[in-house]
Write a structure and sequence with these properties.
Elements lengths: L9 E3 L7 E4 L11 E4 L2 H12 L5 E3 L7 H9 L4 E4 L21 E4 L8 H5 L11 H15 L6 H11 L4 E3 L2 H4 L29 H13 L4 H17 L1
Parallel strand pairs: 1-4, 5-6, 6-7
Antiparallel strand pairs: 2-3
Length: 242
């Protein structure tokens, strides 16, 4: 309740830990030796729902290896899950991160704070902080271009368009992607201690041209909030007059 004084929606990272968590002996230096232990997530969210109401403003970070019990917990409380477009291009057309496989109750991102920027991801090379081989990178890049019908010259806009055009109930685009910035603007590199959270937006970077292009895309795909509010108001006025 206190957090909702500052934000509209709370994203719960590592949501799978509310279904079951990996328990290891306290003296172990690695997480190799352990077991899954059921977590009281259902009781917790039931208590939160009792306090805040049925429609909880919670987004579940359901990334990684997600088991049926995690999906059941998420769906039983109607929490939207996440889709990350950068994870979509391994070649499997059934990949749930591909926009044609989205459903309404998801939040779609081009990438999150833990990803490279869209341009940085597309231009990445093996051995430069990437966990992918050169062959994997080339395969993903080709599939991405084919899927988007892109020549790669404005890849960030093509990825943005794919997310905005999807059926996902919410689309989130990092500002670095809107600005078309490369790897130097990456927010965070997991498992590293250097250079994280240093990127800052500089006044004037969001030029009128970029603003106009983003506005046109959001309006085109019905994600222009001001337009929607205006439409709802007009419909309400008509209903009142009727």
């Amino acid at each position: 309740r206190s957090m909702l004084n500052f934000v509209d929606i709370v994203r719960i990272d590592h949501f799978r830990g509310f279904a079951a968590s990996w328990e290891i002996p306290g003296g172990d230096l690695t997480a190799e030796r352990g077991r899954w232990v059921n977590a009281p997530g259902r009781d917790l969210f039931t208590a939160i729902r009792r306090a805040l109401g049925d429609d909880l403003p919670i987004l579940a970070e359901d990334l990684g290896v997600i088991t049926p019990d995690v999906e059941a917990l998420r769906d039983d409380f109607n929490f939207p899950g996440m889709r990350i477009l950068q994870f979509a291009f391994g070649g499997d057309t059934k990949n749930t991160d591909l926009p044609h496989n989205y459903h309404r109750n998801v939040v779609a991102y081009t990438g999150t704070h833990d990803n490279d920027t869209s341009v940085g991801w597309f231009q990445s090379e093996a051995g430069s902080g990437s966990t992918r081989t050169a062959a994997q990178i080339e395969r993903e890049r080709k599939f991405c271009l084919d899927y988007l019908g892109s020549d790669g010259r404005e890849i960030h806009w093509h990825l943005i368009r794919a997310v905005l055009a999807s059926v996902a109930g919410t689309a989130i685009i990092p500002l670095q992607d809107v600005l078309g910035l490369g790897k130097d603007a990456r927010m965070n590199l997991p498992n590293s201690t250097q250079g994280n959270w240093n990127w800052r937006y500089l006044p004037g970077a969001l030029t009128p041209q970029i603003q106009q292009r983003l506005n046109e895309l959001t309006a085109l795909y019905g994600r222009n909030l001001r337009t929607e509010v205006s439409d709802l108001k007009s419909e309400g006025d008509l209903n009142k007059s009727g």
